[in-house]
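Recap from last week: sequence in, structure out.
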Amino acid sequence: MNDECLSVLDRVSGLRRSGFDICEPCSSNREAHMLKSALLTGGLWLSATTLALSAAAIGFQETDLDKDGSRPLHVAVWYPVHDRASPAVTVGENAVFYGIDAIRDAAPTSEARPLVVLSHGYGGSWRNLNWLASALVQQGYIVAATDHPGTTTFNKDAAQAATLWERPRDLSRVIDALIADPHLAGRIDAKRIAAIGHSLGGWTISALAGGRFDTRQFEKDCQTHTSPRACNLAAELGLGDSRLERDMADPRIATFVSLDLGLARGFSPKSLADIQSPFLVIGAGTDIGDMPARLESGYLAQHLPKATSTSVEIPDAMHFSFMQLCKPDAVALIEEETPGDGIVCKEGGTRRREEVHREVAFLVIGFLATAIPANP
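Predicted structure tokens:
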């Protein structure tokens, strides 16, 4: 096991997983013994073997669903291909963020593969987790992300933003489309589907897992804890609308990953406790002042079943560490256009963002390898 893998294992001293609870830092001997025992019994999914990359290159397509409907969706899809002769191009790049290399409109492989759907944060886009999509495709997964109308960079319509219950349905529609049309990314194994979300995307996938929002609980909690970012979004996102309390679960999704989610405290504890699907909660330990992990990821981890959920906090990650890599002049460019927003390209500690990405990818790939393996 290389030094990077060991550093990740060292960082998981707060790991909770299937029957053992490491609540405080323990001695190196005791920790090594617990990790060795877990690996031998199959109780821990962190294994160096999960990092072996597949031979496939990355294909990429963009498509639009229900283009003339009331809620059209723009969807990006990354998928494994065998074509290495066609030139790769950079996708998902702009003046601020780096993209990834992929072969546009390449023919997908023929075998059925697991699907991972991604959900971006408030004001984000399908580009935000393209780095993670790349890592997952190299493991053999098909990955899809959509722009959520009203809460994306490209559509900030206030009326659509206030229909937050549509966000989980967006991902269900993407799943419908990919299963129905194998030409988009290849054949989907409908029994191996996962959902990953960052920030408001973490809320979205938690609702898909079976979390039920309680508007009265959220309002009362804001009076007690006053989490600035979450509570200040109440009017914009329609967080008092009773339609948010409907069941938004999609039983086709087998497993879930939340990346520093927001609005978690609106979910009723009972609904979270009833979620039986494997669930990985990753929180950012560096608080930027408006989304403390203890009130968001910590709340989710507290109420999910301990037997099927895992919680990890990365001390030197901040909320925006999960977004794509920033270019050298990114902070200055953003500050020039929207002063104060340059924080999205700042680091939470001494490590570079690509180092945090490697740790997150290691955790996510290992988790999915057990829950929905790419090569069962």
